Amino acid sequence: MILIKNVAAILDSKTYKEKVNITIKDSTISYVGEAEKPDNYSTVIDGSKYLALPGFVNTHSHLGMTLMRGYAEDVPLQDWLNKYIFPVEGRLTADMVYFGTLLAAIEAIKSGTTLISDFYLHPEASVRALSEIGMRANVGLAYASRPFMDKVIIEETETKYKELANRDEKILVSLAPHAPYTVSQTLLTYTRDLAKKLNSIVQIHLHETEKEILDYMKSYTETPIEYLASIGFLSERVIAAHCIWVSENDIRLLKKNNVWISLNPESNLKLGSGIPPVDRFVNEGMRLTVGTDGVASNNNLSVLESIRLTALLAKGISRNPRTLSVNDAFEIVTYNGAQALGFDNVGKIAEGFKADIILVDKNSVNLTPMFSPFANIIYSMYSNDIDTVIINGELVMQEKKILTVDEEIVKKEFENYIRKLYY
């Protein structure tokens, strides 16, 4: 059992307490309140210098792409993919992805992320890495069409799903068709049916660039979102990454079908793909989350940066400072993200919720004074303000040191694979 004593805490997007005690039993928060309940605690943390809050949630990333950080810069998305990224990915092995994912997880944890989505090759390597480091995750089984192979691909995906689905209680598995411009309509239909059969979440890239929409409409006379809606693909179990080039009808269909949108503004801006219409999404009451995308296009995994930029874009585009309050932004990067990724009891500090908690040094100069704890988190906090990370009731980082893997060994092995990959 863990006791965090006398800690200031943001419990959820509406509630801040100047001093509480938080008790963690096994993987769950068992008590939150002013009383200190005596018990046989294995760990007692003096919380007087910390601000406790739910861990952040990153709903779109490609963790193994740490292997390509900085490799292709200042090029548009299609050139970036076809001339640089896809050729390197063709040389990746499971071991490379394993160490790339471990390095990514270390970075994510140090930036306060306790639940992350992955969408990449060799998902078995990702599950292994995330389980070993102790991270909560939803790992997508990524695929795209190949000539005459759609039936085989979906059958292989179902087999892989069943192999990986119950390896770790902290890790869910999802279907991850790349995008409508790389996945045939037949395979998208198979995906819809398999998702219903497995009750699986589906991750997919949607409407990331203007070119992909224009090209798609030349062939099909409707947008990808309109097509997906027409076949019953869209639902509350779908996470649509990006959604930049969307029409009013696209927005209507996303809202009607309760689709979760994963906003990735840093990646979108860096690749010159465009700016997501955050203000329209907020005003329409869309179901919003945030992601970082992969570090080859961001180039970091700080979802705190993503939510900060999202909030600023909402205000700047609308020219209205009231668009997307700090409380709503906090909800997006915590509870909303957890809901989208399939974890109903994650994203709040509340009794009965999973103990995914970060402790922030509240005395950091950039967090002083604290007139609004929510504003300080969204607009003032840096990743290096985070001292301690607890995931599923386990100490994963304390005093800024990762406890579950040897960071130096991971970096050394990662560098070895970089040499094999490029030199």
Task: Describe the protein.
This protein has helices at residues 77-89, 94-110, 123-133, 150-164, 185-198, 210-220, 224-230, 248-256, 265-270, 278-283, 303-318, 326-340, 373-380, 407-422, and strands at residues 2-12, 15-25, 28-33, 43-46, 50-54, 56-58, 113-120, 136-143, 171-177, 202-206, 238-242, 260-263, 287-290, 357-361, 386-391, 394-398, 401-402. It is α/β, with parallel strands linked by helices. Strands 1, 2, 3, 4, 5, 14, 15, 16 and 17 form a nine-stranded mixed beta sheet that branches. Strand 1 (2-12) and strand 2 form a beta hairpin. The radius of gyration is 21 Å and the shape is globular. The N and C termini lie far apart (48 Å).
Task: Spell out the key features of this protein.
17 strands; 4-stranded parallel beta sheet; alpha/beta; 14 helices; 9-stranded mixed beta sheet; 423 residues
Query: What form results from the Cα inertia axes?
Result: globular
Stretches where pLDDT falls below 50 for ≥5 residues? none
Largest sheet: 9 strands, mixed
Helical residue percent? 25-40%
Structural category? alpha/beta
Oligomeric description of these chains: single chain
Topology of this protein?
Layout: E1 2-12, E2 15-25, E3 28-33, E4 43-46, E5 50-54, E6 56-58, H1 77-89, H2 94-110, E7 113-120, H3 123-133, E8 136-143, H4 150-164, E9 171-177, H5 185-198, E10 202-206, H6 210-220, H7 224-230, E11 238-242, H8 248-256, E12 260-263, H9 265-270, H10 278-283, E13 287-290, H11 303-318, H12 326-340, E14 357-361, H13 373-380, E15 386-391, E16 394-398, E17 401-402, H14 407-422
Parallel strand pairs: 1-4, 1-5, 6-7, 7-8, 8-9, 10-11, 11-12, 12-13
Antiparallel strand pairs: 1-2, 2-3, 5-14, 14-15, 15-16, 16-17
Helix pairs in contact: 2-3, 2-14, 4-5, 11-12, 12-13
